[in-house]
Design goal:
Layout lengths: L13 E6 L9 H14 L4 E6 L2 E5 L5 E6 L17 H6 L2 H8 L9 H43 L4 H15 L9 H8 L1 H12 L7 H26 L4 E7 L1 H9 L14 E9 L3 H7 L12 E4 L2 E5 L2 E2 L2 E2 L2 E6 L19 E4 L17 H12 L9 H50 L3 H39 L6
Parallel strand pairs: 1-4, 1-5, 5-6, 6-8, 6-11, 11-12
Antiparallel strand pairs: 2-3, 3-4, 7-8, 9-10
Helix pairs in contact: 1-11, 4-12, 4-13, 7-8, 8-9, 12-13
């Protein structure tokens, strides 16, 4: 007989587990940002006591609320992720939706065949444009990086003898330096885009190559889920008989998978707490389902939070219907987020368009100040309806900034892509110029010009066509190894 979750008493404390998203987050940063939004929602009646760096207790709003931050950025940060991002993963993953559809994993009920074909036709060439933009941005980032290195070297002015003795040593070690040519952009890609691939590949044990670092990344990804479960245990020890979960960006995928136990314990010594609400903001869960369908297939045992054979929190059911509410907030200008569809075993998400977040640059990180989100969060925590409105002036400023950002970002990306293409084309032109010099000496200027054009066309063809096609071949191999349905499924 399964023990049913306890019902919430009006004065019983409620726990809110907060899971942050991608990037180089600092401990407590996400908690502080959320508390700032809650101050906007509740005003002066909200009292906050900081019990620990990752734990705050709210009072003055009807019932005690324990807010816990589930911090995981350190597990996918630092030296372990350095040089982990590889643009080949982009060229490969754009083919995964088509492979998911062909294998039957991505059914027509989830996504129609024409939509899969349309997005594949769009994303395959776009991956080349993204690569060009990456090289353009890297070229720009190399300028201040090179300047700083030159400045550091100029501080030590060696003598002529020291220069002579050290020249060969410098030449020998420079080309062995693995960080040679790295810029701040490379660190950013490792910490942001790399988070997605490291997490997804870690969960699925799907790293393309075997290495000690990849095995360690798998252990770190497992530890992320352990931290979520330990935080739920902390909430239980604080006497919280109701648990709510708020997650942002990649954190929504982490929280979702952490609440999909492989086995749902049938018995528990203590009745499990009520898992009442799941708030997702800026969630890429539908995109994860589109590219890596396998990850979200085993959700029938959720939503529940279980440790080994003990059920900490579970969704209660009434007449076979889920009692947990799933509130998903997304913005049309947030390229990461989107409306979510129902997943097996889970309640149907209620999708809320969040307007006024900003443009393409800020929309993904501005949910904590959105009135719709704050109103529903405040209602969920207090059990009372709450209405929050921004002033007309503030709404107008948000609209103006959103319009500017939405114009600036595409223009910047296009400029970087053109710069990247020009950079690669310039290298090809220079190579062609060197090769064609004998033709110039023979007074065959027309042939020499043709050689240079050929080199430029060849490098652009390799970037735009060959890389995409090679990515498809690698994608099919990786998909067969890690993502295709098992014969027993």
């Amino acid at each position: 007989m399964t023990t049913q979750p306890s019902t919430n008493a009006g004065s019983d404390p409620v726990a809110l587990l907060v899971v942050h998203g991608i990037g180089s987050q600092e401990p407590g940063e996400t908690l502080r940002g959320l508390l700032g939004g809650l101050r906007l929602a509740f005003g002066d009646r909200l009292a906050i006591r900081q019990a620990a760096g990752d734990h705050a207790i709210l009072s003055g709003i009807g019932r005690p609320v324990h807010v816990f931050e589930v911090y995981w950025a350190d597990l996918l940060g630092g030296e372990i992720v350095k040089r982990s991002f590889d643009f080949d993963r982009i060229f490969e993953v754009v083919w995964f939706p088509l492979l998911n559809h062909r294998s039957g994993r991505l059914s027509t009920e989830i996504c129609s065949r024409w939509r899969v074909l349309w997005w594949t036709a769009m994303l395959a060439p776009l991956s080349s444009l993204l690569c060009a933009g990456f090289w353009g941005a890297k070229f720009l980032a190399s300028i201040p990086t090179g300047f700083l290195k030159a400045l550091q070297e100029s501080k030590a002015r060696p003598s002529a003898r020291t220069k002579t003795v050290g020249f060969l040593e410098t030449f020998r070690t420079k080309h062995k330096d693995p960080d040679r040519g790295r810029t701040i952009l490379d660190d950013l890609m490792d910490q942001v885009v790399g988070d997605v691939f490291n997490y997804v590949q870690g969960v699925a044990r799907a790293f393309p190559g075997e290495s000690e670092r990849n095995r360690e990344l798998i252990r770190h990804v497992d530890e992320i889920h352990v931290r979520f479960l330990r935080t739920a245990e902390r909430a239980e020890k604080q006497g919280c008989r109701e648990i709510q979960v708020l997650a942002h960006s990649l954190g929504t995928v982490i929280a979702f998978l952490a609440m999909c136990p492989d086995v749902r314990p049938a018995r528990s010594t203590i009745g499990p707490a009520q898992l009442s609400r799941f708030y997702t903001i800026g969630s890429p869960l539908e995109k994860i389902r589109f590219f890596w369908t396998r990850l979200v297939e085993h959700s029938r045992n959720g939503p529940a939070i279980a440790v080994v054979d003990r059920l900490i929190a579970a969704d209660s059911t009434h007449g076979g219907k889920s009692a947990m509410k799933w509130e998903n907030f997304f913005s049309r200008l947030d390229l990461v987020s989107g409306p979510l569809q129902k997943l097996p075993g889970w309640p149907t998400p209620t999708n809320h368009p969040a307007r006024g977040l900003g443009g393409l640059i800020r929309a993904h990180v501005a949910y904590n100040s959105n009135p719709v989100f704050l109103s529903l969060l405040a209602e969920g925590l207090t059990g009372k309806p709450s209405q929050i409105r921004l002033s007309l002036f503030r709404r107008l400023v948000h609209s103006l900034m959103a319009a500017l950002e939405s114009l600036i970002l595409p223009a910047v990306f296009l400029a970087l892509a053109l710069m990247g293409l020009a950079f690669m084309g310039g290298i090809a032109w220079l190579t062609g110029w060197v090769v064609s010099q004998p033709l110039e000496w023979l007074d065959l200027g027309g042939w020499a010009q043709g050689v240079r054009i050929y080199f430029v066309a060849a490098i652009l063809f390799v970037m735009i066509v060959v890389e995409v096609w090679l990515g498809r071949g690698r994608a099919e191999e990786l998909y067969t190894r890690f993502w295709a349905p098992d014969k027993t499924e």
